[in-house]
Amino acid sequence: MKLPSYPIATIDPHFSIWSKADSINGGDTYLWCGIKKRIEGTLTVDGESYTFLGKNKNASIPQTDCIITPYVSDYIFENEKVKLRFRTWTPFLFDDFNLFSLPVSFFETSVTSLDGEKHNIEVGFTCFDELCTGRKKKTINKYSEKIESSSLIKMGLMDQVPLNDSGDTYAADWGYVCLMGGNVKAVKEGISTSDGKYAVKRFDFSCILAYDDVYSINYFGEKLKGLWTEGFSSIAEGMKYCLDNKKELLDRIRAQEKMIISDGKKFGKAYTDMLSAAARQVLAGHKLVRSEKEGLLYLSKECHSNGCINTVDVSYPAVPMYLIYTPELVKAMLVGIFRFANSDLWQADYAPHDIGRYPIACGQVYALANPLYLADTKHSYPNIYKSKSFGIYTPLFQMPVEECGNMLILSWAYYTASKDKDFLRDNYYTLTTWAKYLINKGVILDNQLCTDDFAGHSKKNVNLAIKGIMGIACFAKISDTLQIKNDAMATAKTYADKLVSLCGDGDYLPFSLEKPDSWSLKYNLVWDEIFGFNLFDKKFYKGESEKYLKELNAYGVPLDHRKTFTKTDWMLWAACLDETGKNVGLFSEKILAYLAMTNDRNCFSDWIDTKEAKQCGFDHRTVQAGLWMPVLKDKMKGAE
After folding, report:
1. Residue 621: CB partners within 8 Å, gap ≥ 6?
2. I need a surface site. Which of 75, 154, 326, 414 has the fewest CB within 10 A?
3. Averaged pLDDT for residues 165-173
4. Are 604 and 4 in contact (CB under 8 A)?
5. Could you tell me if 281 and 16 are in contact, meaning their C-beta atoms sit under 8 angstroms apart?
6. What is the mean pLDDT of residues 481-490?
7. What is the CA radius of gyration of the chain?
C-alpha cells in the first residue's frame, strides 16, 4: 500500500514520528507536523554499513516492500547478501488501558542471509537530541539506568518544565526520550542502541523507544500523568515488561487487527486498507489520563487545526471506532466538556467547542475575543477557567447548534453501547439545556458555523438542521431511558417533516433552504438509520446516494456544491445512506487512490481535493476514526 507518509513511532501528539519519503530510508523522519525529529537505523554487513531508516552518509539498502496493517508496519530491504525486515508497532490494546496508554513503540529487526553464507551482522538505532527540544534548542542531559538484565538510556532537557507550552504545530520540550535493548549508550548528538552477532545466517535484534512526558495534561489546574503510571512504577519498568512479553503483546495486537479487518471485510479490501492507513494516527492523536474527581479522560488534539484539546466536533466524527471496540473511551471524551460547561465561566445555553489548547485543558480557547485578557505567556492560556466573564468570547465564532447536537447524539450513542444510565442521569440537567436550545432554534437556522467551519458560515444549512433534529430525538430517548416524560420525539418528527417540506420535491435534500438547486453530503442523516428513529423517508437515502454518484470525482465526492474539496470521514458517513453498501467500497477506492497519487507528504489528511490529488489542510487527525462508521452502522442499526 502506497501512503504519503509512513508511521515509525506513534505514541501521542507530542511523539508521533513519520517518514515522508517513498522508502523510509529516503529522507529524515519528522514529527507529524513536519518538524525534523531524526531517528536512524543502520545495518552493518561484513563491515559495510547501510541505512534502512532515516538518511545519513551511508548508502541506503533498497527497500523492496512495505506492509501496513492497522497497528504494525513491516518494511522489507534486500541486497545481494541479506534480507532485512524492520517492524515497528505500538501496543494499543483496547482491552488493557495500562498498555494502551504506555508511551512505547517496538523496533524489531530480523536479518537473514540470501546468498547462503554466514555474515557478520550488526543492527543499530540512533535517536537525535532534537527529539527532546521544542521551539528552541537547549542543553540535553543523558542518563543511563539498569533494570534487571536490561539497559536503558534516556535523554531530556537539563531544565524540565512540563506543560509549559501549548499550540498546534509545535514540539514539546519536556519529558524524556528513552531507549532500551542491546548496547545502549550516549553519542555526540543523541542516544543509540545496537547489538551484534558474527558469522551467522540469521540475526534478530529488538529494542523499545519510549517518550515519558512526566506530566501529560493540565486539567483545570490538576497536573495529570499518563494512565500507564497506575500500572507501572516507572517508564523503565514498563519498557522492561514489554521486552519480556514481546511475543504475547504482538499476538494480542495481531488478534485485534484480525478483528478489525474481519469487521470491515464485507466492504472490500480497499475499505480495510483505508482503515489500516488511519488507525495509528487516530490513536496517536489522543492522550489517556485519569482525573481524581472525574475518572478517565481521553483527550484529543485537534491537529493542524488550532491545536484545541477535547474538541466536541472532533470527538463527534471520531466515535464510530470507539463505540465499536471500547465505549468507555467515548465517555472519557465527554466528561471534560460537561465539567467546563458547568463552570462559572460558561454562561451560554449551548455546548462549548473545546476545553483548551493541547495539553492545557483549562477552558475553551476557540473564539476567544482577546487572549491577552488572560495574561497569557507561551501560548498556554492556563487561567481561562478562572474567569467569571463570558465576554472573553466572540459569539460569532461559536458553534451552538453544532455542539449541542453533537453532545446529545454522543451521549445517547455512548449509552446504546454501554448501558451506563448513571452517566445520563448525572448530566441530564445540562443535556436538557442543550435540547431546549435546539428546540428553540428550529430548522430554519441563522448564519452559523458548523464543524465544516473551514468552508465558512452558512444560512439555513440543511445538514446542520438534520443534526439538530437528531439531537432532539436523542434527548427524547435519553429522557425515556430515565423515565422522564416529554414531547421531544414528537417535536423531532414535526421538525423533520417541516424541513422536508421546506426543501421542496427533490429526491435529495439541498445544502441550504435558500438554494433549492444546491446539494451536500448529508452525513448527519446516518443516525436516523442507526438509532431507528425513522424521522426521514427512506427515499432520501436513495436520492442522496444517487446524487453522490453523479458528483463523484477522481478522489471522492465534494463536501457540497461550493467547492471541489471533501472530508474523508463525512464521505464514509454519507456512503452509509446507500442501502446496497456499494458506495462504501467505491468511496474507499477513491480515497486510496488519493493516498497513492498525492505529492503532499503528510499523514492521512481528512480534507482533500476530489479532482486533484492535493491536501487542502489537516493531517494526523483523530477524526479518521469516523471511517469506521459503516462497521458501526452494521453493528448498531436500530440500537437502543
Report:
1. 281, 285, 302, 303, 304, 305, 314, 605, 606
2. 326
3. 92
4. yes
5. yes
6. 97
7. 25
